[in-house]
């Protein structure tokens, strides 16, 4: 008698199967684009049948939306986990930038989904990315506000206006997004080099602002 007779084969857990399908979808969407990607390709890459893909996620649009949400959540989690609240403000910002560029470099297909595909294929997808961006901007706003408070307290100067802090956060996030896209396209710039480039550009300028130095067109 066989030693395995009567033992039922184990079915793959739903969470594992879903992760396989999502991984395949992110790779396909990231490399082929939303329009060109097919559910047949995704199913084949995941090693499942197309009906099973539709059973888990009812449509290509739902699958793409799920990919955006997963990749956005992973990017935000990576940035937030890297920043230690007890560190000086410049080290916090450096840690966040380094984590951002490292994550986008290590997950180029996910970044392509977020930065290129989702933004160019209609409002439902673009809104998902906008929500992610708002969360990152809010996080960066907090880092800049902390830095401004630390610098102001040291010199007994007034803090930067909320509008200045908000504007700087928007500019920094926009620059990080553009630099990450360029970094992944060139393939010759490391995540650390990209983070250092933006840190030098942003922090040095921010440092002057915190000293009360402002550029004037006059």
Strand content: under 5%
Poorly predicted segments: 1-9
Which range best describes the helical content: under 10%, 10-25%, 25-40%, 40-55%, 55-70% or over 70%?
A: over 70%
Secondary-structure element order, as H and E?
HHHHHHHHH
- Between the first and last Cα atoms, what is the distance in angstroms? 94 Å
C-alpha geometry: elongated
Quaternary assembly: single chain
Question: What's the total number of strands?
Answer: 0
Q: What is the count of helical runs?
A: 9
* Helix/sheet category: mainly alpha
What would you report as the Rg, rounded to the nearest angstrom?
A: 22 Å
Mean pLDDT comes to 85
Largest sheet: none
Main features:
218 residues; mainly alpha; elongated; disordered N terminus
Structure description:
This protein has 218 residues and is mostly helical. It is built from 9 helices and no strands. It has helices at 14-32, 39-46, 50-56, 60-82, 89-106, 108-117, 123-155, 162-186, 191-210. α1 packs across α2 (39-46), α5 packs antiparallel against α7 and α7 crosses α8 (162-186). The chain is elongated and about 65 Å long.
């Amino acid at each position: 008698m066989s030693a395995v007779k009567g033992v039922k084969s184990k079915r793959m857990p739903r969470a594992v199967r879903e992760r396989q399908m999502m991984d395949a979808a992110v790779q396909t969407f990231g490399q082929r684009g939303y329009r060109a990607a097919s559910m047949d390709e995704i199913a084949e890459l995941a090693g499942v049948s197309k009906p099973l893909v539709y059973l888990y996620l009812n449509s290509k649009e739902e699958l793409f939306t799920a990919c955006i949400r997963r990749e956005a959540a992973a990017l935000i989690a990576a940035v937030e986990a890297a920043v230690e609240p007890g560190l000086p403000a410049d080290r916090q910002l450096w840690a966040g930038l380094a984590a951002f560029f490292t994550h986008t470099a290590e997950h180029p297909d996910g970044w392509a989904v977020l930065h290129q595909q989702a933004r160019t294929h209609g409002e439902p997808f673009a809104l998902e990315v906008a929500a992610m961006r708002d969360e990152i901007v809010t996080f960066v706003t907090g880092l800049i506000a902390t830095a401004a408070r630390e610098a102001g307290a040291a010199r007994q100067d007034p803090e930067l206006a909320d509008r200045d802090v908000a504007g700087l956060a928007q500019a920094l996030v926009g620059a990080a997004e553009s630099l990450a896209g360029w970094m992944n396209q060139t393939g010759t710039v490391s995540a650390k080099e990209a983070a250092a480039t933006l840190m030098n550009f942003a922090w040095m300028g921010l440092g002057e602002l915190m000293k009360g130095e402002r550029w004037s067109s006059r």
